[in-house]
Design goal:
4 helices, 32% helix
């Protein structure tokens, strides 16, 4: 996944990104958008340390409000992704 100013885009894997395939999804960080917490339903899906590495993001999708979850490789990577989302949505940038 890539944070691109006010948009998050993602591919199935690095190879699709490297091959310049079109992304498989996106979220626009506009209006009501940002980071979300783990829901009880989400908690049932994850195992072990995955809960600590999950990043939940909501924003405008293709047709409506959407929530997506990305699983970071490490807790440090999760912090980097969360910080990028915060920077993309702070300081009235989305207003």
């Amino acid at each position: 996944m890539v944070v691109q100013i006010h948009r998050i885009i993602w591919w199935k894997d690095e190879q699709q990104f490297d091959d310049a395939d079109p992304p498989i999804g996106f979220i626009i960080l506009s209006g009501h958008a940002g980071l979300d917490n783990l829901s009880p339903i989400d908690a049932k899906v994850f195992k072990g340390d995955e809960i600590e590495r999950a990043v939940h993001i909501f924003g405008r999708g293709k047709s409506d409000q959407e929530k997506v979850c990305f699983l970071a490789s490490t807790e440090q990577e999760k912090i980097i992704v969360r910080d990028a989302i915060v920077r993309a949505t702070e300081d009235g940038v989305l207003n």
